[in-house]
TrEMBL record:
<dbReference type="GO" id="GO:0050776">
    <property type="term" value="P:regulation of immune response"/>
</dbReference>
<keyword id="KW-0393">Immunoglobulin domain</keyword>
<keyword id="KW-1015">Disulfide bond</keyword>
<feature type="domain" description="Ig-like">
    <location>
        <begin position="15"/>
        <end position="132"/>
    </location>
</feature>
<keyword id="KW-0472">Membrane</keyword>
<keyword id="KW-1064">Adaptive immunity</keyword>
<protein>
    <submittedName>
        <fullName>CD8B protein</fullName>
    </submittedName>
</protein>
<keyword id="KW-0391">Immunity</keyword>
<keyword id="KW-0732">Signal</keyword>
<dbReference type="InterPro" id="IPR007110">
    <property type="entry name" value="Ig-like_dom"/>
</dbReference>
<dbReference type="GO" id="GO:0009986">
    <property type="term" value="C:cell surface"/>
</dbReference>
<dbReference type="Pfam" id="PF07686">
    <property type="entry name" value="V-set"/>
</dbReference>
<dbReference type="GO" id="GO:0015026">
    <property type="term" value="F:coreceptor activity"/>
</dbReference>
<dbReference type="GO" id="GO:0042288">
    <property type="term" value="F:MHC class I protein binding"/>
</dbReference>
<dbReference type="InterPro" id="IPR036179">
    <property type="entry name" value="Ig-like_dom_sf"/>
</dbReference>
<dbReference type="InterPro" id="IPR042414">
    <property type="entry name" value="CD8B"/>
</dbReference>
<keyword id="KW-0812">Transmembrane</keyword>
Amino acid sequence: TKIKTITVYHCLFFPLGFYANLLLTQTPEHILTQTNNKTEILCELKKEHTGVYWYRWSRERQHFEFLVFSNTLGKATYGANVSQDKFSVQEARSQSSYSLHISHLHPSDSGTYYCSVSHSSQLLLGSGTRLSVVDALPLPPKTTQAPVTKNPVPRITKSKAASRKGPCSPLVWVPLAAGVLLLLLGLVPTAHHLYRLRRRLWLRIHRQ
């Protein structure tokens, strides 16, 4: 049957990848979605065709699986053990593009999906769409803002306060006044001694 023949041709897909890009365009390149969601993969054709094939490559299982073939009349042929409730193909733009709809997504549905067309008895693959299904989507990275640095309030200590008052600061004139007072107290005995000597000299002069 045609389905059995398709599985034989997959070894010829990859060497003809560049030429396949001239015949079909597959979008998007990557889909990240959550469990139980649904998604859509678009395949736009640029030349006449008999229909579109859809395949899935599973890296974990190392398995290339045929999913569904949809002809120009809209009739779909599914692969073995492929759920029709999960996969469906819709046609648009006057048979120029097909979209693969996948519903009830599960992490086991993750893999690389390819649309393909038959050309010269060979199947040419699209560029592929990598589908990643996760139970919880990763949170976006938090943008860390630099903390606002507040200018510290200058604390004026007593020594700084005194130094800002100039030569009139108590720390300046108090030690100076104390030094002058000690000097005067030291001169009192000397002045008293000189006064006595002067008085004695004056008495001697008057006795003569």
